[in-house]
Structure formats: structure tokens, C-alpha cells
Amino acid sequence: MDAALADLLVLLNLERLEVNMYRGTSRDIGSPQVFGGQVLGQALMAATGTVEDRIVHSLHAYFLRAGDFNLPIVYEVDRSRDGSHFSSRRVVAIQNGQQIFHMSASFQSPEEGLEHQTQMPDVPPPESLPERSVLANSPLVSEQQRRFFSRVRPFDIRLVGMERLLSGLAMEPSLQVWFRASDPLPDGESLHRGMLAYVSDFYLLMTATLPHGIPFPSKQLRCASIDHAMWFHRPVRVDEWLLYSMDSPSASGARGLSRGSIFSRDGRLVASTAQEGLMRVMTERGKGGDG
């Protein structure tokens, strides 16, 4: 298996410290703090470890403080309720005795019911799009962007309209990205949903920066996730191509709101996301203020 993907599986396989308490480690992926998707995925796996015969269908999370790469993160799970069909969990992530993140998640027993969904956008297939390494080698990207795009990732990620994104011009706040795990993964719906939570934090906030003509990432803009919501609609495999279609309806008050729909290649809507993030323009002195 690809080394980066194998390492991600290790990250999501938390150490059980006690009943309802788990510990995870972190990796530096090039962001200024612990990657939000990592904390989200680990918290979901911690909650999943306290539920039997039910699968997560929604989560709602807040990022409270920046995480430190060099310290473990302890996840404490509160078993809020186990009903006849649904289980509710609350997870708190702790570093240095302080909460850095908390999340509520709901799990459901399998049920049949009414179904409908929105249609997948008509975009070029992933095989026709350049690999992400092309971004790192483009003369149009800054050195900061080059480091970001050249990082080894556990996912093959291909951006639709990459040339448009590299132009540096203001554009409509919409973005489509194909992605899949770099190698086949073990079976298990809980694992694949945990992996999907991890990768769902990539490029979502970036969508809200597109109308403003500011490169992402950039020293001109301080960005950080504030919250993250996710709904899982249908079974998913993250080692098969998935399309992440994102848009941003609003930015105001130094915050940007982005929404996403994740489709399987055959057009099934497997998950939806929403995120509000900090988008603070840096002052001339290079300070964006406290988070």
C-alpha cells in the first residue's frame, strides 16, 4: 500500500486509553496547525468505537484552538443516548488540558425509505485531468503554493479547470475536484466514512476565496476552519473516484461559507458538507489578529 495512505490508516486507528477515551497522533501536512480533517476523522472514529450495529449519518463540529503537531490528542466520548434506531455521541478533543475541538455525531440502524437526490454536475472524467503534481511545477504558483501542492498525500486529487484556478483572477465561487485513495482500502463502511470525513476538509474553504482573486494558500490571507458539518447519505468507497462539487454562497465578517456535494462516479450523492471558515485579510504589519 502507498506509504502516505498506510500512515493515514495508522492515524485513524486510535489507541484506546479507557472506556470512552482514545488517543491519536498527528502529522504535518503543510498547514500552520494540525489539519482539521485529521481531527474530524479521528473524532469520528472515536465515536464509532462506542457504537454497535449503527453507522454515522451526520456530524457537526467546531474547531476551537489550533492543534500542536508534536503532542498527542485525547478524544473523550460522551454516550449521550442510545435509542431504538439512533445513537447520539459527543466527542471532545483535548491537548494540554484544553479543548481544541468538539463534535456531535448521530448514528442510525439501517432502514429503507423514500429516496431522491440532486444530479451530479457534468464535468470531465478524472483520467482526462492533470495530476496535482502539475500544480507544483507550474510557473504560475508561488513558492508557498508549490510547497502545499508538492506534499505527498494519501489521495489522488484532480482539480477541474486547473488553468482557471492558476490564473489568479477573481472568479465564480464554485469548484469541482475528483479524488480517490491512492491504493485499495480494506472493506468497512465505518472506515470509509472516517476517511471521507478526513478528505472532506480539503479545498472546501478555498472555494470561498475564489471571488476575491487571492491565491490559496497565501500570506495575504489567514484561513482556518471554524466549523464543519457533514451528512452521509449512501454507502461509499473512498478508494473509487468521487466528485466533490463545492460552492460558496457568502463571505462576510471575515468568514466564508462553503457547501459541498460528494458524488460517486456513477452519480449517486453519497455525502453533503458545509463549512464556515475564517478568511482574515492580513494587515500591512503581517498580523491578522487572534483567532
Topology:
Layout: H1 3-12, E1 15-18, E2 21-24, H2 36-48, E3 55-63, E4 73-82, E5 86-95, E6 98-108, H3 133-136, H4 143-150, E7 155-159, H5 162-166, E8 174-181, H6 189-199, H7 206-209, E9 221-232, E10 242-252, E11 255-264, E12 269-281
Antiparallel strand pairs: 1-2, 2-4, 3-6, 3-9, 4-5, 5-6, 7-8, 8-10, 9-12, 10-11, 11-12
Helix pairs in contact: 2-6
How would you sum up this structure, described in words?
37% of the residues are buried. A hairpin with a 2-residue loop joins strand 5 and strand 6 (98-108). Strands 1-2-4-5-6-3-9-12-11-10-8-7 form a twelve-stranded antiparallel beta sheet. Helix 2 (36-48) packs antiparallel against helix 6. The protein contains seven helices and twelve strands. It has a single domain (3-109, 127-281), classed as Acyl-CoA thioesterase, double hotdog domain (Porin, Beta Barrel), CATH 2.40.160. The chain has helices spanning 3-12, 36-48, 133-136, 143-150, 162-166, 189-199, 206-209, and strands at residues 15-18, 21-24, 55-63, 73-82, 86-95, 98-108, 155-159, 174-181, 221-232, 242-252, 255-264, 269-281. It is globular and about 55 Å long. The chain is 19% helix and 37% strand. The termini are far apart. The protein is of the alpha+beta class and 291 residues long.
